[in-house]
Amino acid sequence: MRSIAKYGYAGATIGRICAEAQVSRGLINHHFGTKEELIRQAYRDLCEEWTLQTRDLLLEADRDPEEKLRAMVRVNFGPGVFKQDHLGIWIGFWSVIGKSAGLKKLNRELYKQDRDAYQRTFDEIARKRGKPVDSRRAAISLSALMDGLWLQWCLDPEGFTPKDAEAACMDLVTRVFA
Amino acid sequence: MRSIAKYGYAGATIGRICAEAQVSRGLINHHFGTKEELIRQAYRDLCEEWTLQTRDLLLEADRDPEEKLRAMVRVNFGPGVFKQDHLGIWIGFWSVIGKSAGLKKLNRELYKQDRDAYQRTFDEIARKRGKPVDSRRAAISLSALMDGLWLQWCLDPEGFTPKDAEAACMDLVTRVFA
Amino acid sequence: MRSIAKYGYAGATIGRICAEAQVSRGLINHHFGTKEELIRQAYRDLCEEWTLQTRDLLLEADRDPEEKLRAMVRVNFGPGVFKQDHLGIWIGFWSVIGKSAGLKKLNRELYKQDRDAYQRTFDEIARKRGKPVDSRRAAISLSALMDGLWLQWCLDPEGFTPKDAEAACMDLVTRVFA
Amino acid sequence: MRSIAKYGYAGATIGRICAEAQVSRGLINHHFGTKEELIRQAYRDLCEEWTLQTRDLLLEADRDPEEKLRAMVRVNFGPGVFKQDHLGIWIGFWSVIGKSAGLKKLNRELYKQDRDAYQRTFDEIARKRGKPVDSRRAAISLSALMDGLWLQWCLDPEGFTPKDAEAACMDLVTRVFA
DNA sequence: AATGAATGAGTCTTCATTCAT
DNA sequence: AATGAATGAAGACTCATTCAT
Question: Which nucleotides of strand E lie within 7 A of protein CB?
């Protein structure tokens, strides 16, 4: 992942990955067999890491659901995640997900779990407020909005600030119930 | 662009591009000098094509501004644009924009003009309704939401339908003035 | 020849030659048919130019033969000939003479006429002084010494000065009769 | 070096070098990284080989200095060195020395050490005979004469015989003290 | 006669993978 | 289990030559 951030997906060759990890060239094939498998496991780890950092926030039962959503948005646009090199890793993977069945599967699972968690949280809010919402569509929107903001800001950080991005998501959460 | 859609950015080699275009291998370098320049011009054309199809809708002075936004959304999720292979072209380019100064510049211009056009249209609506909105943030949100939906649907068309995607954007337009 | 001086023999491509001569790319093949033929004619011209400048000095009947030799040496190490870029042309051709029968023939004729002219002049001096010399060997030596000095100075002008080079040849002329 | 001798410098492609050495194409870049580095090391080896064969002769302290020079000349025009293909290697390198800083440096060092060794030997002879000579110029002359003879004979072995070449150098050694 | 767009063979180089140690 | 030398297919790019205009 460090190599993808540094050199881009196409530039993350086995040679550079080994140098970055201070590991012998042969070790990669010894452990992973194939570069594709290495990439797959790296994407899996990236997903897991993100899941740990954000989605679990949504599952805390004893917390205000709206506050949970807002906390998750804050993480996604906070200094630990919303960095050009880190977002570059995601974009790097996105560009090849379509070409690998393994990555496609991983990706589908990630987004499914993800949207489901959002949807459940929107439902919690709706229940609490006694106001029905199309929670599924709200979840789709929130998830896509965050990815779109990640994407656009990573490609051009001059276009808007991290604060703008965070505020855009907060607005969406607010307006769903307006 | 056809080659990027078919093989992904990394797989769009000069050989395949030539085969796809039924053109000799040397012709590419004769005309473009460098693969990077070919890519740059392809991205420029893609941007221009999209600009022509959508943004100009927003500039029609004699039309209801909200209807303009909705028409534009409809184009972006209509059958001419919202196709996996076509969206794959955008994703392919996104993955390398960060590595090429030329593409970065093109990209920045595209998004600047784009957000500006949305912002002006939101302003028009606000003026008409006599209700102030943060038009800049609305433009950022709409643009990012559309890219996010493109991205996620292209990587996994099972997650939601084109109708869902369009509706998500329509909701956003509606709720900005809620 | 300008291109060879500028870019080296290997770097003297038809494209660069055309640019240097401000002539269309097709013209070269139109006139010379083949690059090899162009090179051949260029080498012929280079030889002729040199012949005109130097060897004809040796044929002036009404001049002191030793002075003729010295005048010729002076030309060869004078500012018009003894320049890195000009000598670079010779070295460039030398590197391919062995690979082309046409150039080989041209080269053989040049050196034959050349050594013959030197030899005759050495003979004249010998006759004048009434002192027999091995004029053939003297001619071989003088010719080779000049080429060796051209070569070494062109590859490294710091090794010795043009004055050194000229003096070395003058010494040889002197010592042949010592 | 065998490839340069066979095909000329321009014709010594990596493919041919690999075929000549019965080695895989990738090995070259694995070991040398770059063709230029391969060439540099080849030139370094050629220089070293020559140095070992000839210049060390001049450093034997307990030998008659004039005899040392003559022995060195004999090596340079003996059957092990004075062969068309071997001399072709030198000419091949000469044609690119001017284009590569690395080769230039190597070349400068070679000739400097070389002329110095000759000069010291001429000085030894002069001391022994009690007769002063311009040893520096004699060294320049001897070195250049040998290169010139190598060059001319390699390009056209019909012009003179190896014996002629050797004798020309011997003459020069003799006449320096005439 | 002159042009320059088009060609495709050939160049160096990169890189995932293999395999003897 | 771990290494890294070796491989060769594939990449972008160069260039002499061809040919329709």
Answer: 1-20
Q: Do B172 and A141 count as a contact with CB atoms less than 8 A apart?
A: yes
Q: Which residue of C has its CA nearest to D108?
A: C156
Answer whether B10 sits within 8 Å of A95, measured CB to CB: yes
Distance between CA atoms of D171 and D178, rounded to whole angstroms? 10
State which amino acid sits at residue B129. R
Distance B35 CA to F20 C1' (A): 27
Query: Tokens 């809010």 label which residue?
Result: A125
Express each pLDDT in B84-120 by its tens digit: 999 999 999 999 999 999 999 999 999 999 999 999 9
Name the closest residue on chain B to residue A112, using Cα atoms: B159
Angle at alpha carbon of residue B99, lines to B95 and B105, rounded to 5°? 95
Please say whether the beta carbons of A119 and A138 come within 8 A: yes
A30 touches B at CB < 8 Å: no
CB of A165 within 8 Å of any CB in chain B?
A: yes
CB contact under 8 A, B10 and A10: yes
With CA of D13 and C1' of each nucleotide, the nearest comes out as: E11
Q: Give the number of other Cβ atoms within 10 Å of residue D15's Cβ.
A: 11
Say which of A98, A137, A175 has its CB closest to residue B155: A98
Average pLDDT value over all residues in chain C: 94
Q: Would you list the DSSP string of D104-170? A: HHHHHHHHHHHHHHHHHHHHHHHHHHT----HHHHHHHHHHHHHHHHHHHHH-TTSS-HHHHHHHHH
**Residue D175: C-alpha distances to residues B47, B81, C91 (Å):** 81, 90, 29
pLDDT at C175: 95
Do residues B122 and A119 lie in contact, with contact meaning Cβ atoms separated by under 8 Å?
A: no
Quick one: average pLDDT of C56-72? 88
- The answer to whether the beta carbons of residues D168 and C140 sit under 8 Å apart is yes
User: Nearest-CA distance from D32 to chain C in Å?
Assistant: 22
- What is the predicted pLDDT for the residue at A75? 95
Tokens of C8: 């080296």
CA–CA distance, A71 with A76 (Å, rounded to integer): 9
Token output for C93: 């051709």
Q: How far is CA A50 from CA A87, A115, A157, A170, in A?
A: 12, 14, 21, 20
- Beta-carbon neighbour count of residue D53 at 10 Å? 15
Choose the closest CB to D108 out of C99, C112, C156.
C156
pTM passes above 0.90: no
Q: What pLDDT score does C123 carry?
A: 96
Distance in angstroms (rounded) separating the CA atoms of residues C58 and B26:
53
Stretch (H or E) spanning A162: helix A162-176
Total Cβ atoms within 10 A of residue D57: 20
Determine the residue type at D176. Answer: V
- The spacing between the Cα labelled CA in A83 and the C1' in E17, in angstroms, equals 34
Work out the angle at residue B94's Cα, subtended by the Cα atoms of residues B151 and A169, and round it to the nearest 5 degrees.
50
CB B168 within 8 A of CB B149: yes
Distances (CA, A) of C63 to C56, C70, C142, C178: 12, 12, 20, 22
**Angle at CA A39, nearest 5°, toward A38 and A41?**
65
SS3 assignment, position B27: helix
- Segment (H or E) for C144: helix C135-155
For residue C61, pLDDT over 80 is answered with no
- As to burial, measured by CB atoms within 10 angstroms (0-12 exposed, 13-18 middle, 19+ buried), residue A56 is exposed
DSSP assigned state of B51 = I
Nucleotides in chain F with any atom closer than 7 Å to protein CB: 1-20
pLDDT tens figures, C144-171: 999 999 999 999 999 999 999 999 999 9
In this predicted structure, the answer to whether residue B61 has a pLDDT above a threshold of 80 is no
